[in-house]
Amino acid sequence: MSLDGIKDEVERLSDVTEAVNEYFVGNPALVERLLAAVLARGHVLFEDYPGLGKTLLVKTLARTIDTGFRRVQFTPDVLPSDILGTRIWEPEKRAFTLEKGPIFTNILLADEINRAPPKTQSALLEAMEEKQTTLDGERFALPEPFFVLATQNPIEQEGTYPLPEAQMDRFLLRMRTGYPSTEDDEREILRRRIDWSQDDPTDDIKPVIGRDAFVRLQQAAENVFVHEELLGYMAKLVRALRDANEVEVGPSPRGALALLKTSRALALIRGRDFATPDDVKTIAVEALAHRTVLEVEDVLEGTQPAQIVQRVLDTTPAPTPRPRPTP
């Protein structure tokens, strides 16, 4: 695949990141990885403390893409039908008609997803994995593209329901925004707030890339060249992580697929038609840490899965970057 045919669309990706960075003050690499995840048709879970811009970031990205966008504020009383939809009786037609829920959109912002009860969380599983949902025994395909951008607070336990491992595995990446890294960033957040007419400026954001162009870029990402040696590198990373002494349950093959899909999308964003080991390293922690369960003893000692993933990255030799062979 040559990038010549989609050069204009690829250039629009930089416009997307620039538009997001106009509102979100933080690490630009975070925006790049988020964009790579949605290009790879994946779902993203933002897990961090309150007030760090998780919702602002995902809403800003959603607004820059000219597609359908819905937001669901999860609470303990949200029912599956509130997400999927329900059939209602219409006396004029003397029949039941389907009232579709907010999941029938392109970008679903699932805000504070861990506040929803397990039955409601499970309603998302089929949609996230198979891009379809089932209502009263009838299957309904979700629009293309479709991805879930979810947020959750990791420290508040009252009124929350921890996401099961099966649902965590549905997220391509788990990301953290983190605190502003410098005092200048803190000052810039305050300065930008002065310029906003309201606390939430995302309603004023204009799309910078259309739906059809974005779908073409998703298709192009699937055709990015990956050398056999790079495939072996991904496999070694996942297997080394499973074999680590601290790990009770390592990533499944879905974790290796997450490395493959996201590294291809990242290569496209960076203007290449082939993936490199650096692309894999960029997203490895966020693709594998939430799929790694540590031994109880190590958890009690304060060890984090991300530390083990980083150690595996540091100790696994990376191959030489290999571009697509010339025909």
What topology emerges from the helices and strands here?
Elements: H1 7-21, H2 28-39, E1 43-47, H3 54-64, E2 65-66, E3 69-73, H4 80-84, E4 85-90, E5 95-100, E6 107-111, H5 118-130, E7 132-135, E8 138-141, E9 147-152, H6 165-168, E10 171-175, H7 183-195, E11 209-210, H8 211-221, H9 228-243, E12 247-249, H10 253-269, H11 277-288, E13 293-294, H12 296-300, H13 305-315
Parallel strand pairs: 1-9, 1-10, 2-11, 3-6, 6-9
Antiparallel strand pairs: 4-5, 7-8, 12-13
Helix pairs in contact: 1-2, 1-3, 2-10, 8-10, 9-10, 10-11, 11-13
Structure, explained:
The chain is α/β, with parallel strands linked by helices. It folds into 2 domains: 1-75 and 107-116 and 144-220, P-loop containing nucleotide triphosphate hydrolases (Rossmann fold, 3-Layer(aba) Sandwich), CATH 3.40.50; 224-319, Orthogonal Bundle (Helicase, Ruva Protein, domain 3), CATH 1.10.8.80. 44% of the residues lie in helices and 17% in strands. It contains 13 helices and 13 strands. The protein has helices at 7-21, 28-39, 54-64, 80-84, 118-130, 165-168, 183-195, 211-221, 228-243, 253-269, 277-288, 296-300, 305-315; strands at residues 43-47, 65-66, 69-73, 85-90, 95-100, 107-111, 132-135, 138-141, 147-152, 171-175, 209-210, 247-249, 293-294. The strands form 5 sheets. Strands 3-6-9-1-10 form a 5-stranded parallel beta sheet. Strand 7 (132-135) and strand 8 form a beta hairpin. Helix 2 crosses helix 10 (253-269), helix 8 (211-221) packs across helix 10 (253-269) and helix 11 packs antiparallel against helix 13. The longest helix is centred in the C-terminal third of the chain and has 17 residues, at 253-269. The N and C termini lie close together (11 Å). The mean pLDDT is 87.
